C-alpha cells in the first residue's frame, strides 16, 4: 500500500513540478552565482546566461562569493575548481558545512578531471569541462535547478503527507477511544434496566400482597421503557447516519408534539415537572413537520436538561419566524453551564460533558448528537451557547411551512 502511495505521490509531484518549474523559468529569473578568477570566462558565462533570462551574480574568488551569500542566496552556483586562495572544492565543502542546499556545479579543465570527480563525490551536482559548450552549459545549469526544485517540492509534499497521516491517525485514535467508551456505556446502560426488569419481576412473583406486586411491576415497566428508549435512540441515530431513514412530513401541531415529548420525559423523570413551555401567540395551529424526528429532538433536549441542569425552572420557548417560515425551539436552563471547549464536543457521537467513570448521570452520549443530526436531516440548524456557571441555551431551528389551503370546489 505504501509503495502505491509513493508512486502516486511521485506522479503528482512530477506533474505539478513541470507546471511550477516552467512558470518559474518563464516568469521569474533564476538567480545564478558564477565564481571564476578569469575575468573573460566570467564575462562570457554571464553574457550567455543573461541572454537566456537568468539573473547572474558574478565573483572573482570564493571569499567574495561567501560575502555575497550573506545578502541572499542564489538558485544555483557555478564555480571553477582551480582558483587562488579558496578553491572551488573548498568552497563547495564550506557551503555544505554551512547548511546551504542549492545545487553547485564545478568547471574544470581536462587535467583536473580527478578533482571534478572528487567534487561530485563531495556533493557537487555535476561538473562541466572547459572549454564549455554554451548550450550544454545552460542545459546543465537548468537541469540542476529543476532537480533541486523537484527535491524541494517532493519534501514539501512528503511533509504535507506526514501531517495528514498524523491528523488521520489522531482522528482514528480518538474515534476508537470514543467507540470504546460508547461500548462500555451501552453495556452498562442496557444491563441496568435489564437487571431491573428481571429483579422486579422476581420480586413481584414473591410478593405477599397485590399492592406490593403492582409496585414491583410498575418499576419493571419503567425499566422496560428505559430499555426501549435506548434501543429506539440507536435505531433512529442509525437511520439518520446511514441515510436509510427518510423524513415523512405531515400536517401537525407543534404544541402537541412538545407536550408529548415532555410527557414521555415526565414518565421517566419526576424533575421534568420543572419545565415551563411558552408558545408564540402567532404560532400557526398547523405546520408541515416531520413529527417523529421533531418529537425525538425535543425529547432528547428535555431529557438532557433533566439529567444535567441544576434544580430550577427550565424555560422552553416555541416561536414561528415569518415570512421565512422557520420554527424556532429554544430551551434555557439555570444549570452549571459549560466551557466553550466542551460545548463544541457534546454534539459529537458518544461524547458527554462528563465522560469520567465517576459521572453522576448515565446515558450513551448520543442525545445531543441525535438532535444535531436531526437538524441537519431537516435542513435546519442546532446551536448551543453557554458560559461556565451561567446555564446553557439550546436552539433548534427548522423549516416549517404552513399547509396550503385547498380552495372549495
What does the model show?
This protein has helices at 2-27, 39-51, 62-69, 88-97, 113-121, 134-206, 210-242, 254-268, 291-308, 340-345, 367-377; strands at residues 31-35, 55-59, 76-80, 104-108, 126-129, 250-252, 275-279, 287-289, 314-321, 326-332, 381-386, 392-399. Helices cover 54% and strands 16% of the residues. The chain has 2 domains: 2-164, Response regulator (Rossmann fold, 3-Layer(aba) Sandwich); 250-399, Heat Shock Protein 90. Helix 8 (254-268) packs across helix 9. With 409 residues, the chain is of the alpha/beta class.
Structural class, from secondary structure content?
Answer: alpha/beta
Task: Determine and state the CATH class of the largest domain.
Answer: Alpha Beta
Low-confidence runs of at least 5 consecutive residues: 350-364
Cα distance, first to last residue?
69 Å
* Cα gyration radius (Å): 37 Å
Which strand-content bin applies to the residues?
15-25%
Integer average pLDDT: 81
Strand order of the largest sheet: 2-1-3-4-5
Instruction: Compute the number of strand runs.
Output: 12
Q: What is the third-level CATH name, the topology of the largest domain?
A: Rossmann fold
Please identify which CATH superfamily of the largest domain we are dealing with: Response regulator
Q: Report the major sheet.
A: 5 strands, parallel
What is the share of helical residues? 40-55%
Amino acid at each position: 500500500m505504501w509503495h502505491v502511495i509513493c508512486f502516486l505521490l511521485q506522479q503528482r509531484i512530477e506533474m505539478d513540478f513541470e507546471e511550477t518549474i516552467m512558470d518559474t523559468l518563464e516568469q521569474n529569473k533564476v538567480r545564478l552565482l558564477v565564481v571564476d578568477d578569469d575575468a573573460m570566462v566570467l564575462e562570457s558565462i554571464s553574457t550567455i546566461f543573461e541572454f537566456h533570462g537568468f539573473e547572474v551574480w558574478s565573483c572573482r574568488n570564493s571569499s567574495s562569493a561567501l560575502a555575497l551569500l550573506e545578502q541572499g542566496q542564489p538558485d544555483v552556483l557555478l564555480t571553477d575548481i582551480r582558483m587562488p586562495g579558496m578553491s572551488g572544492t573548498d568552497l563547495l565543502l564550506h557551503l555544505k558545512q554551512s547548511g546551504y542546499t542549492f545545487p553547485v556545479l564545478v568547471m574544470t579543465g581536462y587535467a583536473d578531471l580527478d578533482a571534478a570527480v572528487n567534487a561530485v563525490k563531495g556533493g557537487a551536482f555535476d561538473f562541466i569541462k572547459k572549454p564549455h559548450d554554451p548550450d550544454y552549459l545552460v542545459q546543465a545549469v537548468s537541469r540542476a535547478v529543476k532537480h533541486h526544485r523537484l527535491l524541494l517540492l517532493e519534501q514539501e509534499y512528503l511533509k504535507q503527507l506526514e501531517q495528514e497521516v498524523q491528523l488521520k491517525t489522531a482522528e482514528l485514535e480518538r474515534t476508537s477511544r470514543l467507540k470504546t467508551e460508547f461500548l462500555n456505556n451501552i453495556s452498562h446502560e442496557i444491563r441496568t434496566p435489564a437487571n431491573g426488569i428481571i429483579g422486579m419481576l422476581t420480586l413481584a412473583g414473591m410478593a405477599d400482597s397485590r399492592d406490593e406486586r403492582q409496585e414491583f411491576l410498575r418499576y419493571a415497566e419503567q425499566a422496560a421503557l428505559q430499555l426501549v428508549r435506548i434501543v429506539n435512540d440507536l435505531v433512529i441515530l442509525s437511520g439518520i447516519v446511514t441515510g436509510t431513514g427518510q423524513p415523512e412530513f405531515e400536517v401537525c401541531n407543534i404544541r402537541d408534539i412538545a407536550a408529548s415529548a415532555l410527557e414521555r420525559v415526565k414518565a421517566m423523570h419526576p424533575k421534568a415537572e420543572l419545565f415551563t413551555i411558552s408558545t408564540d401567540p402567532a404560532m400557526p395551529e398547523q405546520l408541515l413537520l416531520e413529527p417523529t424526528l421533531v418529537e425525538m429532538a425535543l425529547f432528547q433536549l428535555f431529557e438532557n436538561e433533566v439529567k444535567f441542569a441544576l434544580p430550577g425552572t427550565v424555560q422552553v420557548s416555541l416561536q414561528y419566524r415569518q415570512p421565512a417560515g422557520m420554527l424556532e425551539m429554544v430551551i434555557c436552563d439555570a444549570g452549571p453551564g459549560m466551557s466553550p471547549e466542551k460545548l463544541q464536543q457534546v454534539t459529537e457521537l458518544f461524547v458527554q460533558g462528563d465522560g469520567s467513570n465517576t459521572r453522576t448521570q448515565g446515558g450513551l452520549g448520543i442525545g445531543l448528537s441525535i438532535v444535531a443530526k436531526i437538524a441537519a436531516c431537516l435542513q435546519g440548524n442546532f446551536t448551543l451557547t453557554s458560559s461556565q456557571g451561567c446555564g446553557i441555551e439550546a436552539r433548534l431551528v427548522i423549516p416549517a411551512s404552513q399547509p396550503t389551503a385547498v380552495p372549495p370546489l
